[in-house]
Design brief:
Layout: H1 5-19, H2 27-34, H3 38-50, E1 54-57, E2 63-66, H4 75-83, H5 102-117, H6 122-127, H7 132-146
Length: 150
């Protein structure tokens, strides 16, 4: 099963914030750290705020933070929210629509995929590899070092 780029970006944002739970993080920092478009990341962040995964702070020292501790947010929960509840395939033009025995199997496979992701929290994912946390903590600083001064 493939996840959309939107979901990929959402997971990157959540992992980054999971590594930076002690502060509000500017969206521009995550944009630099991951090398992503700020407009795309803004859309992702807005959806995650609407879904209750993130809280946002406006103003000069504004940004976003996880709405709950990283240990309480399941990876499958984020992916499921971002992907929506659409079926894996579009059956609207198929001659078997309404009479296909594959639909049930595809739904079960999708459910199993998300259940597998539900086993992992954001905190588990940040700590699963020995270098993940240090990379996420140093990413924004490293990117700032390479941005030319204006």
């Amino acid at each position: 099963m493939n996840l959309s780029k939107f979901t990929d970006y959402a997971l990157r944002v959540c992992l980054y914030l999971g590594a930076h739970q002690d502060r509000v993080v500017p969206i521009s920092e995550m944009t630099r750290a991951h090398g992503l478009s700020q407009s795309n990341l803004m859309k992702v962040v807005n959806q995650l705020v609407d879904g209750g995964f993130l809280k946002s702070t406006r103003g000069r020292s504004g940004g976003v933070a996880l709405a709950r501790p990283a240990a309480e947010i399941r990876v499958g929960e984020v992916a499921r929210f971002m992907e929506g509840d659409d079926p894996l395939v579009d059956c609207s033009t198929c001659i078997l629509r309404g009479s296909c025995g594959l639909v049930r199997g595809l739904k079960e496979a999708k459910d199993a995929f998300y259940q597998s992701l539900d086993r992992f929290s954001l905190a588990d994912s940040v700590l699963a590899h020995p270098r993940t946390l240090s990379i996420l903590l140093g990413a924004a600083r490293t990117q700032e070092d390479h941005v030319p001064a204006k």
